[in-house]
Amino acid sequence: MAEKTPDIFYPFPELETERLRLRKLHQNDLHAVFDYASKPEVSEHVLWDQHQSTDDTQQFLDIAFEKYEKGDLAPFGIELKETNELIGTIDYVWWEKGHAAAEIGYVLTPNYWGKGIVPEAAAKLASFGFEHMGLVRIEARCYAENINSIRVMDKIGMTYEGTLRQRMLVKGVRRDIKIYGMLKHEWEAIKMTDQVL
Asked: Is 74 within 8 Å of 67 (Cβ atoms)?
């Protein structure tokens, strides 16, 4: 269970990059979230099942809204500043405060794959984690065959640390999981900017 962090996540922060606004989800994001969460090419890369109706999406939003109210870890909506379009989410899926470690997770509508959106959002969230959450380590994981996610981790300067063989049983299939990590001093050395990497 995520630890409550009202000092940092209540009220829920809003972050900005050159192209993006990372902000809390709203009820009027329902159809935008359903649009990508219902696509099989998206759900094949994540733990959750493909959304079959907006009822599934509403359940996701309701959980997010509850987390916002409690000051818990919760998803940031990824919004294009130019169009105010909600195109995905990014968040810390867990945070072990005692170990100063957390894991980033993300999902993006396929229309914007390959445009540097997730690296831009992930770099900003990593910066927030190191500067405001006291993190010393940030990690990310993906299925071993998820080339797009591997590229994201490479672009923001994460280091490949190994493959956990048959680590997870997901939707009836045993999956190898690649794990990447970044330490605070490595982040500082890279001197990330909010530009597309």
From this structure: yes
> Domain residues for 78?
8-139
pLDDT tens, 126-172? Answer: 999 999 999 999 999 888 878 888 888 888 889 999 998 988 787 77
Could you identify the residue written with the tokens 């809390």?
24
The DSSP output letter for 13 is P
Q: Which CATH number fits the domain that encloses residue 115?
A: 3.40.630.30
188 found inside a domain: no
Report which residue type is found at 134: G
CB contact at 8 A, 139 and 179? yes
Q: Which tens digits make up the pLDDT trace of 115-130?
A: 999 999 999 999 999 9
Q: Which residues contact 101 (CB under 8 A, 6 or more apart)?
A: 95, 135, 136, 137, 138, 139
Handedness of CA 144, 152, 2, 57 (dihedral sign): negative
- How many Å apart are CA 13 and CA 50, to the nearest integer? 28
State how far the Cα of 143 lies from the Cα of 149, in Å rounded to an integer.
9
> How far apart are alpha carbons 156 and 151 in whole angstroms?
9
Token pair 């493909």: residue = 50
Q: How is residue 75 annotated by DSSP? A: P
